[in-house]
Amino acid sequence: MIEIRNVSKWYGKFQVLTDCSSKVEKGEVVVVCGPSGSGKSTLIKCVNGLEPFLEGEILVNGTQVGDPKTDLPKLRSSVGMVFQHFELFPHMTVIENLTVGQVKVLGRTKEEARRKGADLLDRVGLKEFAGKHPGQLSGGQQQRVAIGRALAMDPICMLFDEPTSALDPEMIGEVLSVMQDLAREGMTMMVVTHEMGFARNVAHRVIFMDNGRIVEDTTKQEFFGTPRSERAQLFLSRILRH
Amino acid sequence: MNYHWNWGIYLEQIKGGGETYLSWLMTGLGWTVSVSLCSWAIALVLGFLIGTLRTAPSRRVARLCTAYVELFRNIPLLVQMFLWFFVVPEFLPHGLSMWVKQEMPAKEFLTASACLGLFTSARIAEQVRAGIQSLPAGQRHAGLAMGFTLPQTYRYVLLPLAFRIILPPLTSEFMNVFKNSSVAFAIGVLELTFQARQMQEDSEQGIETYLAVTLLYFICAFIANRGMSWIEKRTRIPGCIAAET
Ligand SMILES: Nc1ncnc2c1ncn2[C@@H]1O[C@H](COP(=O)(O)OP(=O)(O)OP(=O)(O)O)[C@@H](O)[C@H]1O
Ligand SMILES: [Mg+2]
After folding, report:
1. pTM score, two decimals?
2. Closest listed residue to residue B156, CA positions, set A130, A120, A105, A151
3. Which stretch of DSSP H or E encloses residue A79?
4. What distance in Å separates the CA atoms of residue B236 and residue B168, rounded to the nearest whole number?
5. What pLDDT is attached to residue B244?
6. Is the CB of residue A38 less than 8 Å from the CB of residue A192?
7. Structural fold of domain B9-244
8. Residue ranges of domains in chain B
9. Which of A15, A37, A111, B129 has the smallest CB count inside 10 Å?
10. Residues of B near A (CB-CB distance < 8 A)?
11. Tens digits of per-residue pLDDT, A68-88?
């Protein structure tokens, strides 16, 4: 579903990504972790072309992301993305956030979009908030709306960039549970997170990044059993102690 | 002070014509409002267009738009008025030049509106650019990630947010348009300032004249201000102070 081959990227002279390669199969849940500044966000933003990369190639469902001939908006509409800071459109109501893409990008009718949006709001447990604005919701609620907004486009896979790290501790659970349901239903997911509980529960594989490199790319069992790199061991021991 | 007050002057018949001074002032007010609104429409359309393009990916287009803004911001409005009225027609192709000089209808009005519109558009463009650039990059990413094209991202996400952010400076810009429209008297538009000078010379009641004119300008600016506050209230986002962080 997602293939990353030898991707390198620079910000000016600074190399953010060095020769990154990995693969996410259909139905697979891959957790990406690593210390701050290691390039996790950058890598995941390369997958749907929000960040350009200089070297290597990324294929999503067989389509080259880096090819200038690729219809990027079309490709992005089939890849759901959830951000650390939610990034709901603050000037639209919750239901408008869920319908605007369906109508303007997928060409669905307003009623169709509304029905789909209402179903998804119900699914993330926020049916009664349809007419509210994002600013009137708690962080956890906003993030659940954001997941619903991404799902409204019927994505073939989902990207998450630290979806819970801006949340108060008591709201993390509600968001993780929506994500776990998604994972169990067989959604293909690439998730940047430090929630090792989530990784243990639903991930199939774990990618560990450091300094712009993919240092480990193993099954969950291996990663939590005996991560091979010292850096990953150190990282794990730090994270698990909290 | 040896001034002869005459508060009835506004309703007095003007020597030789069937008009009152009040009707002069009202004609002036009409032209002031017309020039202002016309300029404002031009300024909004061009200002948002140029301001948006200044944040667009094409470096060359952005630089061209920056040059536009600098050009119109850095020449005094009065000089621009004369340039458009006296100089620009000379550089048009001969036929067009003759037509503009001799036959163009409402020449003064159109020139003044275009001039003030372009001048103001440069200022609005600057505000629009700053407004868009003040938005967090996440909003642009969220729009694009949803599958919006770049123009759609601007249309549905960035511009509606930037518009709300720049409403306060836009309000003072709208009020400025009314005040700046007085410069149009220099090329012979019969707006308030022009009528005021005429009335003063004709009636020799300078104080009454300019008090009335001051009041009329004040009312224009006040209504403009109220109108913008109304828009500000209507577009306020529930649950947000300004745009979201
Ligand atoms: N626009 C940019 N220009 C220059 N450098 C950047 C830019 N964006 C990110 N970087 C740098 O690239 C590196 C990787 O950033 P990235 O955001 O991908 O890290 P991350 O692993 O997601 O970290 P975090 O856990 O803090 O989110 C960092 O050192 C960062 O300072
Ligand atoms: Mg990050």
Report:
1. 0.90
2. A105
3. strand A79-82
4. 12
5. 41
6. no
7. MetI-like fold (1.10.3720)
8. 9-244
9. A111
10. 136, 138-139, 141-149, 152, 156-157, 160-161, 164, 235, 237-240, 243-245
11. 999 999 999 999 999 999 999
